[in-house]
Design goal:
alpha/beta, Alpha-D-Glucose-1,6-Bisphosphate, Chain A, domain 3, 4 domains, seven-stranded mixed sheet, 14 helices, globular
């Protein structure tokens, strides 16, 4: 086996790269052995998505773990949050083989400790990389005297029942919902999760196909929800839901086919989780979510806590603060009742319960959770990220009417608007998010900052 350059595929939160060019089953086997050594596990759970390379990579990882004497439970085809469920319910470290919304030639591993606690660069992933690199040079360690077992277990029904137990769906009126699974794992999980609910389900692209023949399974890109929007209007549906490739993110469109901001969904779910918790609790939101989110949290008795962008920061803050819920503008939603892990499916059930528990259309329901005008995330290629941020700081730093903070990139806040610019960790990009009380102000601020970035 060639010694792999793992710096290219071991990212901040997961493993991800092109198969077989950057990694293959032989390397997956080493990752399995390294994972159980770093976690000290006696047993683990492994699952995979619908990509052509996923079953082979997943089984190789299981072989590597079993060779170290560890018992492996394979749950087979699953969504990422279904793997988190298995890790939480079974009390086992887990590994999910997926590259989320990346193209078909990619694959990856999302790893967690028992109870779905994340494994990232600072929580074991760098050690796993070091072991896999060393063993690829020197050969795999000697197998255990007694290898572990590899057994299969179906967790889909238990996962679905657990999610439904967390949301009161008893008073939901009949709803027509269009679901675009993007040929990803939502096509596997949605029929079972929605079973028995008073829903007329209109499925789109439910066939599991890791080559993504219809569109990229990334609903945050507006191009990928066009089919869903048209179908919602054509069907006169009550709402539409779009899932990404591994079905851990959920995006919502209203009855008009208009996208609902993930910040509005965060606010709506936060209000419901706070009500369920007696009107108190901490809610986490990252710093590019709308001003609406902390406002709604406070109005409903909760305490908002602002974090950096990224699931490792959200999950860490949820663990330390005991937060009941967390949301990101990327449509990741985290629940204390789900081991602090993210599950778009549970957020979708909250939306169905909120909509189905009253008579107004979704557009009216979410109006109260969508109070400002946002730019969305705008990416600009720049030669020097820090120089661009310094230029923005120079332009706004001396003004009396603004405050600046450096929690994640640079955030500039005024009475009627705010914006954040932060560098990409992997590309020469600056990401701009702006929000204001009205469209005119937002457009003015957005264009001012873009002019500096793109000068």
């Amino acid at each position: 086996m060639a010694v792999a350059d793992l710096s290219q595929i071991v990212k901040a939160y997961d493993v991800r790269g092109v198969v077989p060019d950057q990694w293959d089953e032989a390397l997956a086997e080493l990752f399995g052995a390294a994972f159980v050594q770093v976690t000290g596990a006696a047993a683990i759970v492994v699952g995979h998505d619908m990509r052509p390379s996923s079953p082979g990579l997943s089984r190789a990882f299981a072989r590597g773990a079993a060779a170290r004497g560890v018992d492996v439970t394979e749950i087979g085809l699953c969504s990422t949050d279904q793997l988190y469920y298995a890790s939480g319910a079974l009390g086992l470290p887990g590994a999910m083989f997926t590259a989320s919304h990346n193209p078909a030639q990619y694959n990856g591993i999302k790893m967690c400790r028992a109870g779905a606690a994340p494994v990232g660069q600072d929580t074991g992933l760098s050690e796993i990389r070091e072991l896999a690199e060393r063993w690829s040079r020197e050969g795999a360690p000697e197998p255990a005297a007694t290898p572990g077992t590899i057994t299969s277990r179906d967790t889909l029904s238990d996962y679905a029942a657990y999610l439904r137990s967390l949301v009161d769906l008893t008073s939901v009126r009949p709803l027509k919902v269009v679901v675009d699974a993007g040929n990803g794992m939502g096509g596997h999980t949605v029929p079972t999760v929605f079973e028995g609910l008073p829903l007329t389900l209109v499925p789109m692209y439910f066939e599991l196909d890791g080559t993504f023949p219809n569109h990229e399974a990334n609903p945050l890109d507006p191009a990928n929800i066009v089919d869903l929007q048209q179908r919602v209007r054509a069907e006169s549906a009550d709402l539409g839901l779009a899932f990404d490739g591994d079905a851990d993110r959920c995006f919502v469109v209203d009855e008009r086919g208009e996208p609902v901001s993930p910040s509005a969904i965060t606010a709506l779910v936060a209000a419901r989780e706070l009500a369920k918790n007696g009107g108190k609790g901490t809610v986490i939101h990252n710093l590019i979510t709308s001003w609406t989110v902390p406002e709604v949290v406070r109005e409903n008795g909760g305490t908002p806590v602002r974090t950096r962008v990224g699931h490792s920061f959200i999950k860490a803050e949820m663990a330390t603060s005991g937060a009941i819920f967390g949301g990101e503008h990327s449509a990741h939603y985290y629940f204390k009742d789900f081991w602090n892990a993210d599950t778009g499916m549970l957020a979708a059930l909250h939306v169905l319960a909120a909509l189905g528990g009253q008579s107004a259309p979704l557009s009216s329901l979410v109006d109260q959770y969508d109070r400002y005008t946002g730019s969305g995330e705008i990416n600009s290629t720049v030669a020097d990220q820090q120089a661009s941020i310094a230029a923005i700081r120079a332009a706004y730093g001396d003004r009396d009417d603004v405050t600046l903070d450096d929690l994640d990139g640079l955030t500039v806040t005024a009475a009627d608007w705010w914006f954040n610019v932060r560098p990409s960790n992997t590309e020469p990009l600056l990401r701009l998010n702006a929000e204001a009380r009205d469209e005119t102000t937002m457009t003015k601020i957005r264009d001012e900052v873009l002019a500096i970035i793109r000068a």
